[in-house]
Amino acid sequence: MRRVNSIIYAVLGAIAIIYGVANLLFPTFMVPESARSFPLSHILREQAAMAIFIGCMFLWCIFNYERRASAHYFLMVFAFLLAGIHWFDYLNGHLNWMAPLYNTVPFVVLVLMAVKMKSRAEV
Questions:
Q1: CA 2 to CA 66: how far, in whole Å?
Q2: Cα separation of 41 and 35, whole Å?
Q3: In the chain, helix, strand, coil percent, each to 5?
Q4: Where are the domains positioned within the chain?
Q5: Are 17 and 60 in contact (CB under 8 A)?
Q6: pTM
Q7: Residues 50-65, buried b or exposed e (16+ Cβ, 10 A)?
Q8: What separation, in Å, do the N-terminal and C-terminal C-alpha atoms of the chain show?
Q9: Contact in structure between 48 and 23 (CB atoms under 8 Å)
Q10: What is the per-residue pLDDT across 66-84, written as a single tens digit (0 to 9) for each?
Q11: Contact by Cβ (8 Å): 104, 76
């Protein structure tokens, strides 16, 4: 199970870091309107810094596997909030149906990993 969890942490970490670096260097690639708005460009770069940090936390869970529980639960809180934002915006008609779905996947995966982690601890 450790290998599967490490692969999941690596994939989620890589996605977060790649997204963060791309958004940090090219905020107009993700949101073209940011070329005309300094505040929007600034917020996107701040979001990129956060994504890089989240990616690093996923990678930390690989290298500190035995001590990962607290970081894992905090990553679950983050994923829940991110999914919640996208579901709220979808239900208010601002996003298409794919946005909340692909933002819910990391939360579901982290929850399943936590359930498995908890069941292994009790055995």
A1: 10
A2: 7
A3: 90, 0, 10
A4: 1-64, 68-123
A5: no
A6: 0.89
A7: ebbebbebbbbbbeee
A8: 14
A9: yes
A10: 999 999 999 999 999 999 9
A11: no
